[in-house]
Design brief:
Family: Belongs to the ALAD family.
Strand content: 5-15%
Helix content: 40-55%
Protein name: Delta-aminolevulinic acid dehydratase
Pfam families: ALAD (PF00490)
Largest sheet: 5 strands, parallel
Number of strands: 7
Function: Catalyzes an early step in the biosynthesis of tetrapyrroles. Binds two molecules of 5-aminolevulinate per subunit, each at a distinct site, and catalyzes their condensation to form porphobilinogen.
Keywords: Heme biosynthesis, Lyase, Porphyrin biosynthesis
Shape: globular
Length: 213
């Protein structure tokens, strides 16, 4: 039986997230994406050992030049709310299937700083090319820590909840949207991110181009 649970891994009927079984499918997905022309794959699942397994799978399939952007520090955060609501992807509770209510068993604890450093170091050892922190602004200290620990590029994901706060405040006339967005992105860059993923990407690019004109 298959059940769409809203989780990032395969869920057994007793509620256990199946780490290794999930990784097997992630490897197939990564190779499929490489075959379709992807330059990078970026698994968001947070299963242990996935980066090394995907690296091996890509290499064995002949995609040695396809990189991996690892979700090294993806937190069990409330800031994903707007995205999950839009996709209706919150964990689903089923009467005959024990589905965990949250993702705390595999995503990182927001209170734990050292775990991010450890997980990122493991991802780097397994062959990651970029290390990502998600969300971004609540975790600027993590971005800084990874930047100081590793020579790899550090990516930061400015997620839907961060975007929604700024957008809603601007729409209500409480904040100057351009000013606060560019300040927010600057803070992420200042903390050590060399790559920023944000829903404001196109708008921020236009603002920066206008300022440079």
């Amino acid at each position: 039986m298959l059940l769409a649970t809203g989780h990032d891994g395969i869920v057994r009927s007793d509620g256990v997230i199946l780490n290794d079984e999930t990784i097997a499918y992630l490897c197939k997905q990564a190779v499929s994406q490489a075959e379709a022309g992807a330059d990078y794959v970026s698994p968001s699942d947070m299963m242990d050992g996935r980066v090394g397994a995907i690296r091996d799978a890509l290499d064995e399939a002949g995609f040695t030049n396809v990189g991996i952007m690892a979700y090294s520090a993806k937190y069990a955060s409330a800031f994903y709310g707007p995205f999950r609501e839009a996709l209706d992807s919150n964990p689903v509770i089923a009467d005959d299937w024990k589905v965990p209510k949250g993702k705390e068993t595999y995503q990182q604890d927001p209170a734990n700083y050292k775990e991010a450093l450890l997980e990122a170091a493991l991802d780097e050892e397994e062959g990651a090319d970029i290390l990502m922190v998600k969300p971004a602004m609540p975790y600027l200290d993590i971005i800084k820590g990874l930047n100081e620990q590793s020579n790899l590029p550090i990516a930061a994901y400015h997620v839907s909840g961060e975007y929604a706060m700024l957008k809603a405040a601007a729409q209500n006339g409480w904040l100057d949207e351009k000013a606060v967005v560019l300040e927010a992105l600057m803070s992420i860059r200042r903390s050590g991110a060399t790559v920023i993923l944000t829903y404001y990407a196109k708008q921020a690019a236009r603002w920066l181009q206008e300022d440079a004109a």
